[in-house]
Amino acid sequence: MVFQTLAVDGAVTGWVVYTPIFGTPHLTRTNMTSPQETTSILKRILQTNGLDLLRSPQRLRGLLTDQAPQQPRRERDVLVHAVNSPIFERAWQAGSGSLGGLAQWLADEHGYATDLCQWAEKTWVLALSLHPTPSRRSAESPRPLATGQPMSSTPHGPHSFQTGSSVGRQTGLSAEALIAQLQNGTLSHQQRFEIGQALARIGDPRPGVGLRGDGLPDIAWIQIPGGQVRIDPEAPTGFLSLLPFRRTFEVRPFQMAKFPVTNAQFQAFFSATDGYHFWTWWKDINKSRDAPCFPGKEQANEPRVNVTWYDAIAFCRWFSAKTGTTIRLPTEWEWRQAATGGDPTRDYPWGSEWDSSRCSSRESMATAVGMYPAGSSLQGLHDITGNVWEWGLNRPETTPSRPDTVQVERYGTRAILGGFWNSQPQDLKTFIRSYTASDDHTSYLGFRLVQEH
Fold first, then answer.
1. Is the pLDDT of residue 122 over 80?
2. Separation between Cα atoms, residue 189 and residue 178, nearest integer Å
3. Helix, strand, or coil (residue 256)
């Protein structure tokens, strides 16, 4: 999935969400362009356009096509797919490191031939002047959590809690002391990131982040008041503003999870004997894999990403059965009511003015959940904008007279809500509308739960 900003005469008008289709995976050995030859092209493109280009895979594809028109399409495909990998994201956020494991990720996730995957990894290593890939998986290489093993709270890879900053050196602090520091408005984004990593290492005790004593997800439910929510296509809400309707939705009071679903909580679903592999939860929806894609983020208290809409629906069905309640994804209008706290004048959960210190956005990085308490909504929802996009229940053409648009079905597109850690301020406003295909999964798309009364 690729997000692209719409602009007219330089004025940003919103987001368009693209789900690129790169064709059938190539499973046969082929002759390839030398990594050195492609590296020179990539370096020239990056020198001209800057490293921010790596945040725009669709634009990267266009530039590769323009500047290397004779290059086989399969090579451009695998290079662009590599940029979308969580391994690439970790190297980007760390500012250094290696792309170890990228070739294996490309083979596992997209089915490319081994030699093509190795070619892509070597090409990017050369283009970015990173460390060469180890010949075997090292102890610092990320490991998938979708193999049934218990989740560890020990950090791995370049994001481990071993930094030179003031927060990173305070390894003796208790979890309570670290959590209290989050109220300090002068903390840098890096310090908030490190606090999240430290909490994962020592065990994050915050309600709503981990598991209950019985092994089920511990959800901190927040009461959201009812009200009316107007979806106005005349507002600068991106591509969906072209849909010919302006609707007012009646929202009943409901409860919403304080945080997005975390890695630890989703892992409970995957590991349960009656969880991810139990056919009942997948009735009338697509289960295309024996296991979900591995998390793009490694720590137990980070939001679970790389989940399809179907994965989220199956989780809700399982959790509903376990708790004897009705748990589901929020509709777009419920989410907006929660994000604004019932006050439609709030462009952001905290008010009408942008404040980069209040959420994980383009000026910061992806973090554990709840690292920006000053950015919470009126009722106390954390990360309702920024950090990760969140799946919504409804299709984009929803109207009050079309209840079928919130029904669970096998195909189609669904709303995504809230923006993510690389979004611009204008794209984190509470009225922004976006959507993507139900089977999409990326390293910046997660989900949050709603419980009906």
1. yes
2. 14
3. strand
CA 58 – CA 64 distance, rounded (Å): 10
Distance CA 197, CA 301 (A): 8
Q: Which residue has the tokens 């959420």?
A: 359
Q: Which CATH architecture has domain 221-451?
A: Alpha-Beta Complex (3.90)
Q: How far apart are CA 227 and CA 170, in angstroms?
A: 45
Helix then strand count (H, E) for the chain reads: 12, 12
Rounded to 10 deg, the angle between the 86-94 and 102-110 helix axes is 150
Distances, alpha carbon 53 to alpha carbons 45, 62, 80, 282, in Å: 9, 11, 11, 38
CA distance 161 to 155: 7
151-189 burial, b at 16+ Cβ within 10 Å, e below that, comes to bebebbbbbbbeeeeebbeeeebebeebbebbeeeebeb
Q: Two tokens at 171?
A: 């390894």
Q: What is the pTM of this model?
A: 0.65
% of the chain exceeding 90 in pLDDT: 40
CA atoms within 13 A on the CB side of 374: 17
Helix or strand or coil: residue 411?
coil
Judge contact between 314 and 286, C-beta under 8 A.
no
Bigger pLDDT: 165 or 187?
Answer: 187
User: Per-domain residue ranges for the chain?
Assistant: 2-128, 165-202, 221-451
